[in-house]
């Protein structure tokens, strides 16, 4: 093991391990006891013996892994407390997707906050981010670079309103696709929203937890192709099958300026914090010691070099 947060969290081949609490945060491999911030595949793997997570995260994980998951799940509501060994653990909304949680760990009078993935932008498809004070902040830095200033979603939706033809819209299956569906319902009233069958079960989980995604219908090739104001949302593996289709306009929703998937246009919608969001987070938490994960924290370290705030880069 190497790289540590005050010897409270240490970096291992399985991810961040809480020494006094004897648990892992978002481990990359099955472990005895895992605390999962949200249901995306780079944070939630199956078959840890015991998994602590919010109820929506558990529902999404059970849908993703189906019968292959052998874990015992322990549901932890936001702001509810559980004590693991001598560590007091509680969840707070991270705003990244349905059920996403920041993990607050309290031990020996000090507060350690792990953000998981988070965003501050308004998103009516999930719980809104809440600021939590702490001494030690372990934050994602996916877009922690001054070049990233995520545009307002309504501005991006207007791109779609200006298109007269049918649109194929690629979006990650869990989180992004549901947010896009809600945004389309809110900002593109003249469009018919079709959703690929691979996404239906995830949409229903969102709606079962009380988050309306607006008016959408299952994808029908005949209905979609015979109309001229349709938008079909589909996951990346299906989107790639239409890479040569010239009868539709192909958008891909992502925070990256250059997506990994071939498309005609980028819909710049990110579910991660941008540069200003990360700086706001640091200010609001009051943390004086910052540890970066899930991204390159070097720009942040350089920016805060003369501020008295210590930044350490942790690598996975």
Overview features:
316 residues; alpha/beta; seven-stranded mixed beta sheet
Task: Write a structural description.
The strands form 3 sheets. A 7-stranded mixed β-sheet has the order 1-2-3-4-5-6-7. Strands 8-9-10-11-12-19-20 form a 7-stranded mixed β-sheet. A 6-stranded parallel β-sheet has the order 15-14-16-13-17-18. The protein is α/β, with parallel strands linked by helices and 316 residues long. The longest helix has 12 residues, at 176-187. The chain has helices spanning 55-65, 153-161, 176-187, 200-208, 221-226, 236-239, 275-285, 298-303; strands at residues 2-5, 9-12, 15-18, 23-25, 33-35, 50-53, 72-75, 81-84, 87-93, 101-107, 110-114, 136-141, 167-170, 192-195, 217-218, 230-234, 249-254, 265-268, 289-295, 310-313. 22% of the residues lie in helices and 29% in strands. The radius of gyration is 20 Å and the shape is globular.
């Amino acid at each position: 093991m190497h790289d540590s947060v005050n010897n409270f969290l240490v970096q291992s081949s399985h991810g961040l391990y809480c020494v006094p609490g004897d648990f892992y945060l978002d481990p990359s491999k099955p472990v005895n006891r895992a605390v999962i911030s949200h249901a995306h595949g780079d944070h939630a793997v199956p078959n840890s013996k015991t998994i602590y997570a919010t109820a929506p995260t558990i529902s999404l994980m059970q849908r993703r892994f189906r019968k292959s998951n052998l874990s015992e799940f322990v549901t932890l509501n936001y702001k509810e407390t559980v004590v693991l060994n001598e560590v007091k653990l509680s969840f707070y909304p991270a705003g990244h997707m349905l059920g996403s949680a920041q993990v607050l760990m309290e031990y020996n009078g000090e507060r350690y906050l792990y953000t998981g993935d988070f965003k501050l932008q308004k998103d009516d498809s999930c719980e809104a981010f809440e600021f939590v004070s702490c001494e030690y902040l372990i934050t994602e830095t996916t877009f922690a670079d001054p070049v990233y200033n995520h545009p307002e979603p309504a501005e991006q939706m207007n791109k779609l309103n200006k298109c007269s033809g049918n649109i194929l819209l690629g979006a990650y299956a869990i989180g992004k696709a549901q947010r896009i569906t809600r945004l389309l319902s809110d900002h593109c009233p003249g469009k018919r929203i079709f959703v690929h069958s691979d996404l239906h079960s995830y949409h229903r989980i969102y709606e079962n937890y009380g988050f309306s995604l607006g008016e959408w219908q299952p994808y029908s090739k005949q209905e979609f192709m015979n109309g001229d104001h349709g938008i079909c949302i589909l996951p990346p593996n299906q989107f790639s099958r239409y890479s040569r289709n010239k009868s539709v306009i192909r958008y891909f929703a992502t925070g990256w300026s250059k997506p990994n998937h071939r498309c005609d246009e980028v819909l710049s919608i990110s579910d991660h914090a941008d540069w200003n969001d990360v700086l706001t987070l640091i200010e609001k938490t009051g943390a004086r010691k910052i540890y970066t994960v899930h991204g390159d924290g070097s720009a942040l370290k350089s920016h805060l070099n003369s501020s008295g705030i210590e930044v350490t880069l942790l690598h996975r």
